[in-house]
Amino acid sequence: xxxxLIRRLSQPADTKVILxxxxxxxxxxxxxxxxxxxxxxxxxxxxxxxxxxxxRTLPVGFGITPGSxxxxxxxxxxxxxxxxxGRGALESTGIGFEIGPDDITARGNLCSLDGAGLITxxxxxxxxxxxxxxxxAQLQTITLPGVQTFVQxxxxxxxxxxxxxxxxxxxxAETDPxxxxxxxxxxxxxxxxxxxxxxxxxxxxxxxxxxxxxxxxANGVLLRGWSGRPNVPPFPELWKLRAAAVTVYxxxxxxxxxxGMDVVxxxxxxxxxxxxxxxxxxxxxxxxxxxxxxxxxxEDGDFQRKSDAIEAFxxxxxxILALGPDVLVVTGDHSTPSAMAAHSFxxxxxxxxxxxxxxxxxxxxxxxxxxxxxxxxxxxxxxLPIAFGxxxxxxxxxx
Length: 399
What we know:
The strands form two sheets. The protein has an eight-stranded mixed β-sheet, with helices on both faces. Strands 3, 4, 5, 6 and 7 form a five-stranded antiparallel β-sheet that branches. The protein folds into two domains: 3-85 and 232-390, Alkaline Phosphatase, subunit A, CATH 3.40.720; 90-227, no CATH class. It contains 14 helices and 13 strands. It is of the alpha/beta class and 399 residues long. Helix 5 crosses helix 9. The two termini are 19 Å apart.
């Protein structure tokens, strides 16, 4: 749905909607020829399907593998091809860094390099956050001519790099090849206006790599998602409601903040996230709950851990229903099959449960059932129009 139409049709209502995003939910057959969802015991998610409607979403388009930013922007109702936000802006905003008009920012990974400069581990063994903070304090001492630099830890091996100064451009290439066994990419301009900035980034990477060279792991840096300060129509104004995000990982706080949601402290685990929603139930009409562990297990290629993470979420579904939502949506921002150990272009299962939902004949929450469901296959940017339509938050179109 186009944003102008959303503005016209959205209307206040006395209903509550919860959107649960299981990051990287979709999978591919692995153990015994079944996906992680098929392998998992999901009796509570199955109940939602039996009482609701199931289908599949396409985060961006056929054959296109999305990052987490585009995947979430689509779920929030924004066309990810129009509102493209770099990972740097998401991570920076997620840790509360205020991006200025002269800033460009990237999300960084501390990585491990061998003696030949090849990447042996893109995540440096998922380095503990405290160690990343200490390394970022070292990297903060790097200086570049004519610009200020800011290096701050995010979580685990992740950090942000911000360059501040006149004439900077985000039209530069990422240095992260997003695979191992190769060297980091040398930053280059993707448009003429990026030449100066690319040279600065090359200088920073050279100095950072030299500074970290003596370490056994976390002796390299990878940068991706260059972005300036984005301009996005505010979510609460579009939908005429009060919206809150309850997340554990900073990046997802970032994407929620960028679209204008309030961010509620989600604690450190799913139980604490649900408790936070309960504590703020009367203050908001819409809650976005993000669950990371399906994605991290998929990226690690760990089929069983991803299946276990799905089961852990399933056990929490009764507590989510006990909050009393009028409409509950469970889906993912993209697929991360453990068989691929990476994001993929595959469609993502979705279930919509609640008020005025047209039931189909299915009773399992997995990829096979999703192919047959009432909802069919549709762009992820239509998820919230479907949810808010069921919640009575969209007026009739036309006479």
